[in-house]
Give the backbone structure.
Amino acid sequence: MLTASDIESQKRLAALAAVDLVENGDLVGLGTGSTARYFVEELGARLAAGRVTGVRCVATSLATERLAGVTGLPLVALPASGVDLAVDGMDEVDDGLRAIKGLGGALTREKIVAAAARRFVLIGDAGKRVDQLGERTPLPVEVLGFGRERTARLLEDLGLEPTLRVQSGKEFLTDNGNPVLDCRVRLPADLEELADRIDRLPGVVDHGLFLHHADLAFLASFGGMEELRRPE
Ligand code: 5RP
């Protein structure tokens, strides 16, 4: 049985593997969450030590923006030309490199940056690997506050079971000021079709299915580092 500290070590190992991919002068998308945090800290440390030079970064959340500031990573707004590399954690990943993200609530900005990356790399402990996406975690959907009960009904009509995310007794709001509906997915599900149908619902800002974004995933376990690559 892994302890919480074992899992933290694995997250850190996966993050370190991804930092090795950063090249001098890269524009790097910084993910959000406890695994991405290790990536940001290590990249900041390498920049400070001169082990990598000229990198600039785009943060996917206000929390990551603050962390990048503390670690001395220069931040820029996402340019129209995108980023060289983006690195982020995930809540679940399957063998086809498809992921659910968003338990940290940054899914919309994370997807904008992931979609703008020449290379998008997922990092996590091996416990994030699943046979079927949705088997352990709900699918987060960021929605507009306006009409959110109606949007929840439309998600139910797709076979999902939405629950409004609450944090510290209050409605959780993303950095964009929107609520999140965490949706239990009834399995088995056709995720391609589900993503497409959610994308078309009025009131939905974005959802946590990242089906075609990742090029590579580093999954750390005590057995070693596993690399999942996008199927040809
Ligand atoms: C935030 C995310 C995170 O990447 C995801 O929740 C994983 O977080 P952690 O590394 O803390 O397990 O999608 O929106």
Remarks:
- Residues 31-36, 88-91, 101-107, 110 surround ribulose-5-phosphate (CB under 6 Å).
